[in-house]
Amino acid sequence: MGIVKLRKNFHEAKWDEPIIFELSTPGERGILVPQVEKAIEKEVGDGLSDLPPHMIRKELPKLPEISQNRILRHYLRLSQETLGADINIDIGQGTCTMKYSPKINEVFVRSPKVTELHPLQDESTVQGALEIMYKLDLLLRKLSGFDRFSFQPGGGSHAIFTMASIIYKYHKIHGNDHKTEIITTLLSHPSDAAAPKVKGFNVIDIPPDPETGYPDLEAFKEAVSERTAGLIICNPEDTEIFNPYIKEMTEMVHEVGGLCAYDMANANGIIGIVRPVDLGFDMGFYNLHKTFSSPHGCGGPGLGALGVKKELEPFLPVPVVDYDDKNKRYYLNYDLPYTIGKVREFYGVFPVVVRAYAWIMSLGEEGIKEVARVAVLNNNYVMTRILKEVKGVGISFPKTKYRVSQVRYTFEKLAKDTGLTIEDIIRRMVDFGFHLWTSHHPWIIPEPFTIEPTESYSKDDLDEYIEGLKTAAQEAYEKPEIVKNAPHQSAIHKIADISMLEDPEKWAPTWRMYLRKYGKK
After folding, report:
1. Residue 182 pairs with which residues in a beta bridge?
2. What is the rounded CA–CA span in Å between residue 127 and residue 329?
């Protein structure tokens, strides 16, 4: 066991680094492109003369003119002002499953065999890529019990929208125009309600039982009717209380002809142990960018791998990857009779597919189960210590004892005792080099924070994080001004006026918009 020491002397760099456009010097270059050799130009031309006039720029692009070494300094300085996943114990961003992303997998996806592929290449030239997609499909089928997967959705919310689209088309094909309602639960992800709303469904939110945190079963029974098109639900929800009624709920929806869709964004504590089909689901998705280790958020793109049972295969987005046993080749199959069409261009984010495939193959079946077991063990260790040792903390629905792989805590007591809020604690945690998050909006649980230890962190890591939380909470009671004015050690200190963050009219997400709105050069 290592030494557990809270980094009270942590201090983030502060560079006052300009925006890259402000570093531009006319005529400066990061690379000098050589002219075409005369012998080559004689054979094929200079590469520009043959282009039609409308494809040739009239003006130079408005890009920063800057040298390589200045670009390198720029981005290294920005990275030093960022509390990223690779430099902190990133268990405080609960529901996001910020597990370690193996760096060997980055070697794979940065290979020219991945980076130089083009989605419009002939199938005969991308057999290796199609094989990886096909084999990942087979692995996910075994984990889930579903019969076919699509890798088109670009993340969890996108996969939920795809499931809502399948439910919509399924009932349209079967003439079920009366099925206009989707049931979800209040503590499922907000997209589970938002996506079907976009598809035109009426959405019924089932509240939690105030004592247990389980979905209110009586309210659910009242909601199910002949109008029910389907159920879209997280299990466990973000409180990580596993729903003991889930199979009963899917059976009730099936009895009225509805479909059941599983939001498996919180699958890290049950993967390899619980199969969605055994709970009665017709479809569901895994977030490959979370559960299967691909870096996400600012670290990279997402992918919501969507699986369905046999009956719903014809509705999947096209194409899917198939194998022609006779001709011994992989191919893209567009022949799905009731397909909802494309939900994005091409076939999915291939580097995420490669990372997920490598992660599964490195662990094997037993390794996947061990991931879930260790994630649950880590979470319950952290929960036990926090509830015993961190002053002013509580837990949502305390009468329900067990949690799976994360916990939604509450600092409601600390707020009442000290007048400080969870936002103050979050800012103080930055002074120790830690990140802490609250919960999805609206806040059903007062003064919330959500911790998800995953399987990646050691006991020493978890102990260090808990020490930070203990210290911040103790200071809230004994030295409240320190917490109230935090952070003291970060690149940006407490922002007094956050009104600009709340007003879209003041946002400037691009340099051009910034110049247009604020007229600065």
Report:
1. 203, 230
2. 7
Which tokens in the block code for residue 469? 């939380």
DSSP symbol at 36:
P
What's 260's DSSP letter?
A: E
Q: Which residues of the chain have pLDDT under 70?
A: 1-4, 298-299, 520-521
User: Alpha helix locations (H) across 145-245?
Assistant: 156-173, 191-198, 217-223
- Buried/exposed code over 232-259 (b: 16+ C-beta within 10 A; e: otherwise): bbbbbbbbbbbbeebeebbebbbeeebb
By C-alpha distance, which of 222, 306, 216 is closest to 261?
306
The amino acid sitting at 51 is L
Counting Cα atoms < 13 Å in the Cβ hemisphere of 33 gives 1
DSSP code string of 281-321: -SEEEEETTTTT----GGG----EEEEE-GGGGGGS-S-EE
430-448: string of b/e by CB count within 10 Å (b at 16+)?
bbbbbbbbbbbeeebbebb
CA distances from 146 to 1, 59, 223, 279, 377 (A): 42, 53, 27, 12, 28
Which helix (H) or strand (E) segment holds residue 450: the answer is: strand 448-451
The pLDDT tens digits for 67-121 are 999 999 999 999 999 888 888 899 998 888 999 999 999 999 999 999 999 999 9
Q: Are 433 and 10 in contact (CB under 8 A)?
A: yes
| CATH architecture assigned to 112-360 | 3-Layer(aba) Sandwich (3.40)
What residues have CB less than 8 Å from 15, skipping those under 6 apart? 77, 78, 80, 81, 491
> Which tens digits make up the pLDDT trace of 219-231?
999 999 999 999 9
Helix (H, G, I), strand (E, B) or coil at 366: helix
pLDDT for position 488: 94
**Helices (H), ranges, 116-216:** 127-144, 156-173, 191-198
**Cα 471 to chain centroid, rounded:** 30
Q: Give the separation between CA 243 and CA 234, rounded to whole angstroms.
A: 9
Alpha carbons 212 and 126: distance in angstroms, whole number:
52
Decide: pTM greater than 0.85.
yes
Residue 87's φ and ψ, nearest 5 degrees, are -120, -5
